[in-house]
Amino acid sequence: MLTDGFNRPHNYLRISLTDNCNFRCTYCMPHENMSFMPSAHLMQQDEIDHIAGIFVQLGVNKIRLTGGEPLVRKDAAAIMEKLAKYNTTLTLTTNGVRVHEFLEVFKKNGITSVNVSLDTLDTQKFARITRRNEFNRVWKNIELLLQNGFKVKVNMVVMKGVNEFEIPDFVALTRNLPLHVRFIEFMPFSGNKWNGQSVFTYAQMLELIAGHYHFTPLAGHPNDTAKKFKIPEHKGTFAVISTVTAPFCATCNRMRLTADGKMKNCLFSAGETDILGALRSGADIVPLIQTCLLHKEADRGGQFTDSFEDLNAATMKNRSMIAIGG
After folding, report:
1. Which of 26, 27, 209, 318 matches a 20 to 30 Å C-alpha distance to 120?
2. What does the alpha-carbon distance between residue 277 and residue 280 come to, in Å, rounded to a whole number?
3. Going by C-beta distance under 8 Å and a sequence separation of 6 or more, which residues neighbour residue 262?
């Protein structure tokens, strides 16, 4: 089992397939006219398979595919098929717009749970946030996943002054649908215009929901990032991912591979380890993986504290969210 310098076991690998996306979400992508990495710079199918296989040998038992948008990659289906042979839980995070094209691929490769990013239920606001007019397609695909028995988590990034007042509307979805809605505190990344005043906190979210519903906390699992709640008689649940104000770093078990094969031991880590470059040069990547993990900081990459209001995001050393992988 892979462990870091704080003796935290790590068995969960997130693999970004691409830094490209068919949306242009303002909090994720710095600007509309971004340039993306050429294909030769990305991990290729066999390289993803090879690297993932080594991580599995080292104890990884869950793999999540991310992007950008993973389903825009032309060989996404082939990659899923390669990874499906490992004895792991395979899942993905998507913006949902192409889910209907991949439904049978998911079933064939044992994917039973899908996270869908959706930050508003207002079609016009959706178009403003994503810079694309695809709300109806995304919502139909969420319904399609539910109709086909998938566990569906809806991820909403909450931004003060943008969509925080929609939180009760998202919770209302769980009344008749077995959805698992997750509210995510707005986090700082390169180019996303974050500031402390734009964070709608975990405490504020619960206070807002409590004004509409009575809810109870649910028991969690050791490595949960989300604090879960349920409203009596509702089919679904809601949760809060409180990275900024109430982090869960003490039990973190996650590692990341960017689309160009750099290992990040934390979403906020300033440093990266070039796994792909080492693989292409014929080097043994196992010591690199182990060393990268041993350098993991205790909390949020060592880059900010609980006094988030005073944080200057411009001083943080990191990539944009789309370049890291969701």
Report:
1. 318
2. 5
3. 272, 273, 274, 275, 276
Report the DSSP beta bridge partners of residue 229. 217, 238
Q: Contact, 174 vs 168, CB < 8 A?
A: no
Tokens of 89: 């839980």
| pTM score over 0.90 | yes
Pairing verdict, β 254-257 and 262-264: antiparallel
Burial label for 196, CB within 10 Å (0-12, 13-18, 19+), is middle
Higher pLDDT, 274 or 306: 274
Q: Are 274 and 262 spatial neighbours (Cβ–Cβ below 8 Å)?
A: yes
pLDDT 10s digits, 228-243: 999 999 999 999 999 8
C-alpha distances in angstroms, 198 versus 85, 168, 186?
43, 19, 7
List, in sequence order, the alpha helices (H) in 132-270.
135-147, 167-173, 202-210
The whole-angstrom separation of Cα 307 and Cα 321 is 22
Its sign, for the CA torsion 227, 166, 149, 87, is negative
pLDDT given for residue 235 in this prediction:
98
Task: Map out the domains of the chain with their CATH numbers.
Answer: 2-324 (3.20.20.70)
Residues 6+ apart with CB under 8 A from 110: 84, 90
Q: Per the structure block, which two tokens stand in for 48?
A: 């993803």
Torsion of CA 240, 234, 124, 98, to 10 degrees: 80
Token look-up 């990275």 returns 243
